[in-house]
Amino acid sequence: MKKYIIFKNPYILIEDLRRKYKPFFKEYLKDKPTLNLNSYPLNCPFVPGTLKYNKNKTRQGVCEVCYEKFNDYFQHINTKEHRDFAVDDRNFHELDLFIASLNNNAGTFSNYSDVVYDDKCLTNLLPDVDGFINEYLNKK
């Protein structure tokens, strides 16, 4: 006696016409399966495509500007304390000094007109390079 199943709900049945492989079936208990043609490549076309956006999700952390803990980032950056701290130039005095020192040093290194380059700078760095090239060319 053959075993068979009577489907009561919507189903998908895949059978081999040559009957080499046994049938594969999937019965859906909730909804009738629909084919989602707008699905992304390599995604299941039977699953509805949903994009999750966490745009308004609250982020907790510590502010890198005013060093205060916060539970909601967007609420924190709109507070008066944060804005006052960010506008006050005294809070960024050390950073301004650091940037100014970088700008001063960059001015000393930007003029390379007095530097004399050696024709054989690569061979000065790697003295055996000429011998290596000659050996390589002689092998061919």
Automatic annotation (TrEMBL):
One of its GO terms (molecular function) is zinc ion binding. Residues 56-105 form the DBF4-type domain. GO terms for cellular component: nucleus. PROSITE patterns: ZF_DBF4. Keywords: Kinase, Metal-binding, Transferase, Zinc, Zinc-finger. InterPro entries: Znf_DBF, Znf_DBF_sf. This is DNA replication kinase.
